[in-house]
């Protein structure tokens, strides 16, 4: 992919990821956040965290299934946007719901399993955000970086459980997200199985490069 095309694609992703925040600000400005503004803001930020997190996890499966390499260039950006959204989501919970009452917040994390899962997801995204710089990728090496960044799947599993456990009976959305995550994980497991089989048979290098190889280079 040419440099201008890559820049245009990244610009597009920036626009798509910032649009929900802009819309939220616009609605807040117009006093249009519904009967329960705190809940509306929390839920909107939670929804977008999950969407962007799953989008970041879809980039490698797109390469595996369709042989496309350009989605890999967006993975880091999407992951960072997911982290920004979850920080805002968490900030609303800690500031507007608890006003930094740490003992009550801690009790809530231990008491409500869906909050425990949300926290686990947030905490597992921290090392990923912290190692997202080019310098850290170079220091860790692409292979170790890719290994560490598999934590994103754990974060996504916790995030989906968070949504499943908080949703009211009859709400179907969390099941759609769970299905999407199962498909994304399934593609990775299928690719892993294929590589193991190929290695066992002692065949030559695969047509599509394995995860963690140069083609999976996060700096590409
Ligand atoms: C990656 C991490 C997280 C993701 C993907 C996520 C996602 C979501 C989603 C999708 C919703 C429901 C939105 C809706 O109903 O439309 C939600 C609601 C909520 N989340 Fe999270 N969340 C995460 C982390 C957290 C954390 C760390 C906390 C607090 C410690 C938290 C607290 C809440 C609360 C209080 C609600 C609203 C529940 C209600 O409506 O009663 N979340 N989140």
Keyphrases for this structure?
single chain; 220 residues; mainly alpha; 9 helices; 0% strand; binds protoporphyrin IX containing FE
Can you describe this structure in just a few lines?
Helix content is 77%, strand content 0%.
Question: How many helical elements?
Answer: 9
What is the helix/strand order?
A: HHHHHHHHH
Listed once per kind, the bound small molecules are:
protoporphyrin IX containing FE
What Rg, in angstroms, do the CA atoms define?
Answer: 19 Å
- Counting DSSP E segments of at least 2 residues, the number of strands comes to 0
Q: Largest beta sheet, briefly?
A: none
Q: What helical percentage do the residues reach?
A: over 70%
Structural class assignment: mainly alpha
Low-confidence stretches: 211-215
Distance between the termini: 10 Å
> How many structural domains in the coordinates?
1
Overall spatial form: globular
């Amino acid at each position: 992919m040419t440099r201008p095309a890559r820049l245009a694609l990244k610009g597009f992703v920036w626009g798509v990821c910032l649009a929900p925040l802009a819309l939220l600000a616009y609605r807040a400005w117009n006093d249009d956040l519904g009967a329960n503004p705190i809940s509306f803001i929390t839920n909107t930020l939670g929804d977008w965290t999950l969407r962007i997190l799953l989008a970041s996890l879809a980039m490698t499966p797109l390469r595996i299934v369709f042989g496309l390499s350009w989605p890999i260039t967006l993975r880091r950006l999407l992951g960072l946007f997911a982290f920004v959204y979850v920080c805002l989501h968490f900030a609303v919970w800690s500031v507007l719901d608890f006003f930094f009452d740490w003992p009550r917040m801690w009790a809530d994390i231990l008491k409500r399993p869906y909050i425990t899962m949300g926290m686990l997801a947030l905490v597992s995204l921290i090392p990923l955000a912290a190692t997202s710089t080019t310098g850290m990728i170079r220091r860790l090496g692409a292979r170790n970086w890719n290994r560490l960044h598999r934590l994103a799947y754990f974060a996504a599993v916790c995030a989906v459980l968070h949504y499943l456990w908080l949703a009211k009976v009859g709400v179907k959305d969390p099941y759609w997200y769970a299905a999407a995550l199962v498909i994304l994980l399934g593609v990775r497991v299928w690719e892993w199985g294929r590589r193991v089989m190929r290695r066992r048979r002692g065949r030559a290098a695969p047509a599509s490069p394995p995860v963690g190889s140069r083609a999976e280079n996060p700096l590409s």
